[in-house]
Amino acid sequence: METTAEALRLLDACGTDVIELGVPFSDPYTDGPVIQASAARALAAGATLDGVMSMLKEVTPELSCPVVLFSYFGPIVRRGLANFTAAAKEAGVQGSNNNQFKPSSQLINS
User: Fold this and answer.
1) Would you call 50 a catalytic residue per the annotation?
2) Which residues of 33-71 are buried (b: 16+ CB within 10 A; e: fewer)?
3) Number of structural domains, the chain?
4) Range list of β-strands (E), 1-110
5) Which of 2, 6, 31, 58 is catalytic?
6) Model pTM?
7) Quick check: is 20 catalytic?
8) Structure confidence by residue, pLDDT tens digits, 79-92
9) What CATH number does residue 99 fall under?
10) How far, in Å, CA of 79 to CA of 81, rounded?
11) Which is catalytic among the residues 6, 20, 62, 90?
12) Structural domain boundaries, residue 95
């Protein structure tokens, strides 16, 4: 996580408007091969949602730009929406981009 923390600081120092930080998931089936491979590497190195939140709690006070999490709905549901939201807020997260939803037309026609 220290490499990620340093990357966040560097991006912020370069004037980044918003940082979208991906949280790895064991089943990123809706993503392409690049994100799938990066998720597999991160998980193999021990990255977890709790670890990302802990790192962000330390780093976000140093940043001038907002951090948005790129995550998946499965881990959020497992944690509980209220618990996830509280942890994200405590970690200084300003938003979340969540994957794994079917397009609305598929939901209506299912």
Assistant:
1) no
2) eebbeebeebeeeebebebbbebbeebbeebebebbbeb
3) 1
4) 19-22, 67-72, 93-99
5) 31
6) 0.79
7) yes
8) 888 999 999 999 99
9) 3.20.20.70
10) 7
11) 20
12) 2-109
